[in-house]
Specification:
304 residues; 13 helices; Cell Cycle, Chain A; single chain; Conserved hypothetical protein from pyrococcus furiosus pfu- 392566-001, ParB domain; alpha/beta; 5-stranded mixed sheet
Length: 304
C-alpha cells in the first residue's frame, strides 16, 4: 500500500481518499472510456510493452472507476492499463469504485496524467482550458497539480497558436520552450513560417531566441521609419486641416503583415479609449472612421 501511495502522489490521493480503498475485479466489457480523459494520443508500442508486462505480472495498480446510470462503469483514471489489459486478453481488471462528481472525475484524471507526465503541452492546454470553463482560476489549477501559475498560464497560451503549429507541438516536433516564444508573435503567417524552420533545421530554443531578437531589431527599424513618415504626414494634415473653426487630426493604422490580426473588436477598443480620453480632457470633438482592406483611418475634428 505504501508503494501504491508513492506512485499515486499526494495530489491524487487527496481526491480519491488516502484510506484503504476496496478493490473489486470488474469485467473489462463493463468499463467504458472516460469523457474527461485529457490524453488524445497513446503510443501503440508502449501499450504493447505494458500488455506484455500485464500478461506476466498482472495489473499491479487498480484503475479507478465510477458507477454509471446504466449499471456499468465509467473509467476515471487508468486508461493505459485498461487498453493494455484488453490487448493482453484479460477479461477482468482490478478497480476501485468511487462516488465522485464530473468535476472531481476530471480533476482525478488530469492529476494522474500530470503526475505521470503523460500529456503533451497541447493536451495540458486543452485540459486546463476546460477547468477554466468549470470556474477554476490559473492559480487554482497550479495548486491542484503542484505547478506554478506562470507555468499554467504559458501552457494555456499554446491554444493561441495556429492549429497546424499546435499539431507540431502535440506531436513533439516543437517543444514547449519553442511554443512559448512563438506565442509572443502576433503574425500567424510568421508563426507558421518560423515553426517550419524549427522543424526543418532542428532549431534549439536558444537559436530561436536569437532569430526572434534579430527579427525584432529589423522590425523596430522599419517601425521607426514608418513612425517618422506618419509624423510628417500628420503634421502636414494638421497644418492644412483647419476648416470652419475646426482642427482635423488624422490617425492612420496600416494593416500590414505585422498587424494582420487587427479586428473590429480591437478597433472599437481603440476608438473607445480615444473618446474617453478626449471627453476627460473636456475637448469638444467629432470623429469619422474609414476602413478598407489596406488601411484604417480615424479622423478627429476638434471644435474650437
Amino acid at each position: 500500500m505504501l508503494a501504491e501511495k508513492k506512485r499515486l502522489g499526494r495530489g491524487l490521493l487527496s481526491l480519491i481518499g488516502s484510506e484503504r480503498n476496496e478493490v473489486s475485479m470488474i469485467s473489462i466489457e463493463r468499463i467504458r472510456g472516460s469523457p474527461f480523459q485529457p490524453r488524445r494520443r497513446f503510443d501503440e508500442e508502449k501499450l504493447k510493452e505494458l500488455a506484455a508486462s500485464i500478461k506476466e505480472k498482472g495489473v499491479i495498480e487498480p484503475v479507478i472507476v465510477r458507477l454509471s446510470e446504466d449499471g456499468n462503469y465509467e473509467l476515471i483514471c487508468g486508461e493505459r492499463r485498461l487498453r493494455a489489459s484488453k490487448i493482453a486478453g484479460l477479461e477482468k481488471i482490478p478497480a476501485i469504485v468511487k462516488n465522485v462528481s464530473d468535476k472531481e472525475a476530471f480533476e482525478i484524471s488530469l492529476i494522474e496524467n500530470v503526475q505521470r507526465e503523460d500529456l503533451s503541452p497541447v493536451e495540458f492546454a486543452i485540459a486546463f482550458s476546460k477547468l477554466v470553463d468549470m470556474g477554476y482560476t490559473h492559480e487554482d489549477i497550479a495548486k491542484k497539480i503542484g505547478k506554478s501559475r506562470v507555468w499554467v498560464t504559458n501552457i494555456i497560451r499554446v491554444l493561441n497558436l495556429p492549429e497546424d503549429v499546435r499539431e507540431l507541438v502535440d506531436k513533439g516536433k516543437i517543444s514547449l520552450g519553442h511554443a512559448k516564444i512563438l506565442c509572443s508573435i502576433q503574425n500567424k503567417s510568421k508563426v507558421r513560417e518560423i515553426a517550419k524552420q524549427i522543424v526543418e533545421r532542428g532549431m534549439s530554443v536558444r537559436e530561436l531566441e536569437i532569430l526572434i531578437k534579430n527579427m525584432n531589431g529589423k522590425f523596430a527599424s522599419k517601425q521607426s521609419n514608418r513612425a517618422a513618415k506618419r509624423e510628417d504626414t500628420e503634421k502636414s494634415r494638421r497644418e492644412g486641416g483647419k476648416d470652419k473653426g475646426q482642427e482635423k487630426i488624422t490617425i492612420i493604422g496600416k494593416q500590414n503583415n505585422e498587424l494582420e490580426d487587427v479586428n473590429d473588436g480591437f478597433l472599437r477598443r481603440i476608438i473607445s479609449e480615444l473618446d474617453n480620453f478626449l471627453h476627460t480632457m473636456g475637448v469638444n470633438f467629432s470623429r469619422d472612421v474609414y476602413q478598407n482592406e489596406n488601411e484604417i483611418e480615424i479622423r478627429i475634428f476638434i471644435k474650437k
